[in-house]
Amino acid sequence: MGLIYISPWILGFLLLQLYPFVASFCYSFTNYNMFSKPQFVGLANYIRLFTVDSDFWNSLTATLKYAAMTVPAKLVFALIVAMILNVNLKGVNFFRTVYYLPSILGGSVAISALWKLMFMKEGMINTVLSMIHVGPIDWLGSTAWAMPTISLLQVWQFGSSMVLFLAALKQVPQELYEAASVDGSTPVKNFFTITLPMITPIVFFNMIMQTINALQNFTSGFVVTGGGPLKSTYLLGMKLYDDAFGNGSFKMGYASATSWIMFLLIFIFTLLIFKSSDAWVYYEDEGEF
Question: What family is reported (predicted)?
Fold first, then answer.
């Protein structure tokens, strides 16, 4: 009876997760276009990625740059907002809900299209800047501004991280702040010696999740900038899409190789964060920092 109850999950896992995972690994060693039988080519797809395909290195660089901009900014902004909302005021729950809404809507194509309209030369952002005699700035057509523009869209979706930070802040024992105030500690010192060490497990979790999201981002670059200008925002997710469906070639074998490079990239960064956690993540049951 128990197996019957969990059979929908088992079927979903086997058909929609495990099988695609294994199949993509097998296809990455083949020449496969969905309409003919896969032809085994060994490491040819991977060799071509690293030695011939210049777009791969460009997209890899753009993806790392995007993650480097997005993840720290999103974590810092989410923590600041969480600390502001960590007060007992009338109506504060309304503001918590409002600040969470971008995380629900921000990943949609519609919001990305709206973001593109806002940052066009004649968009709302330049209109506002013109009122204070600044601009216009070519947000989407400049290699200097395009990446920060799409990164800002991801940072705007800080709600999920903010909620976790808010929950962590409420778990910090108030006795620690009371003891620190007796010793004459300042709010800034309290933050770095009490608040931040106590919430490092949530910082650790948010860092991993946001790094994974940033490294596999697709919608922002595809909708807002189309990978331009000069492929400066051509993220690895976009290259994966183009390898699979670009120009109707359906190079699924080559795209599978690209996807596994993305998987290894995410795995390496996740492993590095885990390895570094021993030096900066504090767990209360360990009794040390």
Answer: Belongs to the binding-protein-dependent transport system permease family.
